[in-house]
Amino acid sequence: MSRPLHSRSSRVKTTKCAATGKRRYRSEIDAKIAKMGMSSERSLKAERRVYECRACRGFHTTSQTVEEYKADQIAKKRARELRAGE
Questions:
Q1: Where are the alpha helices (DSSP H) in the chain?
Q2: Distance between CA 29 and CA 44 in Å, rounded?
Q3: Three-class SS of residue 56?
Q4: How many CB atoms neighbour CB 17 within 10 A?
């Protein structure tokens, strides 16, 4: 009998993203398997989604929803504009 995918998460190989310092998964599937395993672990933050990193071309997991990410990007853009206007 095969083991469930989430029990294989500890065997997913990762490297470190030079740009972000986050775990870099080689494929979206590997990141999704790891995310499933993280959900069942004692993590304080639940990893909600997987995304492709523009810097390393690998995949990362994040606890931010897409909406939270977009709001964060808008806030950062406004802060840059305010600093540029000083």
A1: 28-40, 66-84
A2: 23
A3: coil
A4: 18
